[in-house]
Amino acid sequence: MTQDPLPESKIPNMPPRILLGPGPSQAHPRVLQAMAVPMIGYLDPDFMLILDEVSELLKRVFKTEESLTMSLSGTGSAGMEAGFTSLLEPGDTVVMCVYGFFCERMIDMAERVGANVIPLRAAWGKPFPPEMLEEELKKHDNVKMVTAIHAETSTGIRQPLEAISNLAKEHDALFMVDAVTSLGGNEVAVDRWGIDYAYSASQKCLACPPGLAPVALSPRAHEVVKARQRKPMSWYLDLALNANYWKGHVYHHTAPVSNIVGLREGLKIVLEEGLEARFQRHHRNAQALWAGLEALGLDLVAPDGSRLDQITPVWIPSGIDDDRVRQILLREYSIEIGKGLGEFAGKVWRIGLMGESSKAEYVLSLLSALEGILPRLGYEVPRGAGVGAASTALAD
Amino acid sequence: MTQDPLPESKIPNMPPRILLGPGPSQAHPRVLQAMAVPMIGYLDPDFMLILDEVSELLKRVFKTEESLTMSLSGTGSAGMEAGFTSLLEPGDTVVMCVYGFFCERMIDMAERVGANVIPLRAAWGKPFPPEMLEEELKKHDNVKMVTAIHAETSTGIRQPLEAISNLAKEHDALFMVDAVTSLGGNEVAVDRWGIDYAYSASQKCLACPPGLAPVALSPRAHEVVKARQRKPMSWYLDLALNANYWKGHVYHHTAPVSNIVGLREGLKIVLEEGLEARFQRHHRNAQALWAGLEALGLDLVAPDGSRLDQITPVWIPSGIDDDRVRQILLREYSIEIGKGLGEFAGKVWRIGLMGESSKAEYVLSLLSALEGILPRLGYEVPRGAGVGAASTALAD
Q1: pTM for the predicted model, two decimal places
Q2: Which residue range is the domain that position A380 belongs to?
Q3: Which terminal residue of chain A, N or C, has fewer Cβ atoms less than 10 Å from its own Cβ?
């Protein structure tokens, strides 16, 4: 039997990119190398030692001694869904602090599992006011869970979590936190902040390829999953079954061994740099970016003091074509930045400086590129002012 | 702030293994190399070309021109769950042909999404009799879906699918097929066999690391997902949303770009070898294994004519310690084989010869190892008989 010849690849080799979008960010070369080793079985006794090590490293990165830490076999959104499908039963009430695109995704997911969803919608681009939650919780006596996003990448807001956590605790509710963009770039203190379920993603500040969702599950939340009346709607993302594999080494599904070995390397790199040093690096480079953008006359979405170091949404100047700028950046400068989502679509660019992508040279390259591009499109900027201001900030 | 030193890795380097279990099988070195290239954005226009190419290559491997082909961002079980959560609504009737461990997993998943599940349990270790389905379908007038597993890895049975498909069609039901272990090792003819939803996994006969579930969705099944009254319970595994990303390039979740680039390479390797040649290789090496095991006096679970080439369950001789043999194989010979599942736990070993693991040298090494191990544990075998018989079969 003859076969048709293979179609010719339009992209035989992956083009080089400077990834300054919302993720994936650059993967660390050591992670890529670690992932390229030959396969091993997902129940191999030696691989069980690797699982244990990853779990231990995650405890340090999540700052938890109490919680069970593991990675789920999907991207960050799988971590989000695992929380809803495992911690909520149909009819359970969940109160959601909503202040961006990914908060809206949470609502969709929780509704799908049949929860009684109470969204508290606050303005985008500002931290969520805990008073709003306090008011709402007074009206209910049976709230099962409260949710918040630590780092809303659609708005660039860093959300303080302790006040929200305290309110959840006062009302005996579980506290679920999206740490997708924050973990490894900002402090995430699971125990100190009383987080019952936190999930993250491998491809942002942990500098691994996308495909895994590291999570931390508190003893209380773990009990809730185990004591369910009816099984979670998802078998694949059932936190109890996944925990049985990570802790009891009981077969669940074929774990993505290469990605897990890569995550181990990524976590080691995070801890070798040191959490505090890593947070400071993210902050320093972000400050340089902010200074540079402002020197070009651009306005940042998030107010000073509430800004995420990992991702900076910036208002697109009026008259400037969103797509065009991103296309030129990609094709002429090999730089990817992110577009706006939801109500910010077409209105903002989102510039990520996460993990391996948080580097001074990338900040300078991007600002220099913008100094070249924007005037071509009719938006005059003081040439050199962006890189100058960034350079000054970096030297401080 | 000082930090505790990192825990010392117990397994700093991945130990070499010959993987003859139920998967992951050996990954092709070209796949591992392809995955080690720097990251690219999941909405990058160049990555969209890679998505299109993977989709096109999958069409050839699934033998479909009609179906939408893509990979889901999870392992094979995620592909299974995506079918139930997307194609069934609560109360929908699904009739399941059940003849092994993974068929039982299907029941669990379908029950979780609230379907009316009718399991037709037939004996393990034999093909499912279509008459059983025919009888059952006569009793209902509203069956939404019929399911079957092409290659039940718990029993080693290759299930003919056309009779089952015809019955499903006669009753206007969707036909969902598990092709996790068969795709790339046996013919899977989606169009010719009238399969509405087929899912597979990257880590078996496609010789990629685990982490992706390639799927094929017929136009009819796609319509069913789009026309649902209520959204699928899973957002992450919603086939319509995933299809929007693969075909419409609309953001859904951060796709695991490295795994997808690896899958592209794996599919190219499959098609370069040629599907027929690849199936023949799997069959030739399996025949050699069967001849060798039988020459050692071991009994195979599946009857000749219904055996899978990819995985061979073999009865453990009485008095022989299951764990002990697998431990010695792993520690002294670096060979992994699989254990029994469900009602076959402790009773069978499962020997996989899939993708890059389907090689004559591995067949001979395993038989030679068994010739050395079994007599040490009190089960005498005619020395050299296993490798002799395998070698003869290979030469034929």
Answers
A1: 0.97
A2: 275-395
A3: N
